[in-house]
Amino acid sequence: MEFWFVYRAIILEFLFELYVFYVLAAGKLDRAPRFPLRFLAGAAAMLAIALPAARVYQAVGNNVWGRSFLYLFLFAASVLQMGFCFEERRSTVLFCCSMAYAAQNMTYKLFLLLWCGLRQLRVCDGWGDRYELYYHLLYYAFFFAAAAAVYFLLVRRLLPYLSNRRVDQGLLALSLLILGLTVILCSFEDIYFGALTVGGENRFEVWEYFVLRQTGNCFSVVCCAVVLLLSFKTVEGKELQQQLAYLRHAIHQSQRQYEISKDTIDLINVKCHDIRYRLGTMASTRDGMTAEAVDDLQKSISIYDSAVETGNHLLDVLLTEKSLYCEQNGITFSCMADGARLSFLRDGDLYCLFGNIIDNALEAARRVPDRERRVVNLVVKARGDILLIQEDNYFEGELEFRDGLPQTTKGDRGYHGFGMQSIRMIVRQYGGEMTASAENGVFHLNILFGLDGESGPASGIGATE
Description:
By secondary structure, the chain is α+β, with helices and mostly antiparallel strands. It has 2 domains: 2-238, no CATH class; 308-465, Heat Shock Protein 90 (2-Layer Sandwich). The protein has 11 helices and 7 strands. The strands form 2 sheets. Strands 1-2-3-7-6 form a 5-stranded mixed sheet. It has a two-stranded antiparallel sheet with strand order 4-5. A hairpin with a 2-residue loop joins β6 and β7 (442-450). α3 crosses α6 and α9 (313-328) packs parallel to α10 (347-366). The chain is elongated, with a radius of gyration of 34 Å. The relative contact order is 0.06.
């Protein structure tokens, strides 16, 4: 009966440690209705399983396959319980649970590295009757410190990516395979090295046995670290793929928007030209209109004279469209652009690049209370073999930069903030460099492209598919 209590304590400690990491790993998952009730019911079911599992452990604990099967069975049961508590895809729940199990196993093996060293150095020989108390105090102090380290260094970085709920099935299968092999290896080590200990668990008279034990512990730590890194890479990769797909879609939509804007502006110009001609005729005949009325109408259609000419027809269309927006919103838009030097950019990339640059600037300038500070300056010029794109605008409030990019000030970060990312993606695609900064309420954006004569990007740097 005494041994059964020991095995029961081992099973309960394992489940407790596992669920600590479950709580950390599942923090961003969507909870099912009546989550507390579901969780308590699941915990009760796991306790009901743990009690007979202790009996099984007592019977097969000295068998590698029996012990491995028992731990994997408990892990599988806990995954089912977590799936019962969260409204998520099974692959997502399994991904979080496998990550938590790897973290728990790695923490345990790290402690064994420390503990085997202490036992070999006879540090614990003087603990006497308080051996169990000191052991558990040391173990759980180490466990919670290691759990905090694993969480802050890795798990916390994974949680934001889990909002997409996308898990690569191949890498998930590979992670589970590595995790399963690690469990089998740990069972093998615990059984066979336990038989070689003398004078207490994890103490060896033969130095080679101690080295082998520590080598096995290190190997298990590496395997669990690989599982965690694979978890991080697969989720991060899915996030990057989604962002890239969105940016490509945005570029495609920008090209379509250019075609629509071009047709609209061409139509407006034709109509304005026709109205101007008719006004000229009416002014000469004074047919029912005064000279003042004719002047007012001519000012109203001055849109025809506001067309921007940069030497690049696509950029002309875009800047003309944005100039009209500035006129309606009281924004001073100053532009000096040598559009002819932008011929190396594909139409969709050019429209998306400058569309995002100007849209971000106009949105910031529109929020400035002082109308005199609602100013946006854009310069595109070549200096030798360098093409410079420079944009400056006033803004209100504070800007937070992360990874060299200003973060969106909009509340929904899941659907906004791609503008600056798309700018940088296009710039890098053509071998350029981009920097952004903010000082004294003024935002500065600078983009540099290396040019090869008059043709475009410097040799060896160009647009990629």
